[in-house]
Fold:
Amino acid sequence: MLGIILLGPPGAGKGTQAKKISDEFAIPQISTGDMLREAVNNGTEMGKKAKSFMDQGGLVPDEVVIGIVKDRLQAKDCDKGFILDGFPRTIPQAQALDRVTNDLKKEIRVVLSLEVDEKELMERLCGRRTCAGCKAMYHVTFNPPKAEGKCDKCGTALMQRDDDKEETIKARLVNYKKMTEPLLQYYKGTGKIRSVMATGDIGRIYANIANILR
Ligand code: ADP
Ligand code: AMP
Structure:
């Protein structure tokens, strides 16, 4: 059972690295951000509730995200492991995850803490582009697609997230410091945390992560 948590501020590269881990280790990426955006797009009750928090760069209430993750972890494809990308983000979420994994007899083996200089995060998030089809991740300068505005993998148009605007990014970074950074301390106590330098070449960062996981 390879249960992995990816911790790090918005823009640290959690989604980028999670996709690579998922491909090589054949375990699913569980991104609460992706699941919430899907709920918003589908106009579900949960999506309507989450949207105002997301638009302002705030966190969606704990009980909502805990419920999503609890359901998701029970799916068959999580039997061999899973990558939590963007969850937990608060201490109560981490405590709930401990209870859920215990109940489901699943185990978090490692918490990868992605470390990036704060000043680089804004640049990364302002230039982030996502494939509307297969959700592949790009950056206009740091990781551009071969043809401008089009996904290399499936040819679908790339889009910019609604919350990747300077003001919203600032709010997200403030919330990260206040609500999520304390998790580093929480997980230090478990001995499962591994720090990963997450600046520079994406492939090289992944090579370090893969070494830890192997
Ligand atoms: P997170 O999921 O942690 O918010 P992403 O994986 O979405 O972060 O990455 C944020 C942006 O930074 C994306 O545009 C991505 O292409 C880019 N990016 C990811 N890793 C790096 C890196 N090592 N160097 C430069 N840009 C990167
Ligand atoms: P992300 O895609 O991880 O950048 O998340 C986008 C937005 O979804 C965040 O800014 C939050 O509003 C919301 N969100 C995602 N994951 C969580 C979580 N674990 N707890 C609370 N809100 C979340």
Summary: Residues 8, 10-16, 124, 127-128, 137-139, 142-143, 200, 202, 205 surround adenosine-5'-diphosphate (ligand 1) (CB under 6 Å). Residues 57 and 174 are 9 Å apart (CA to CA).
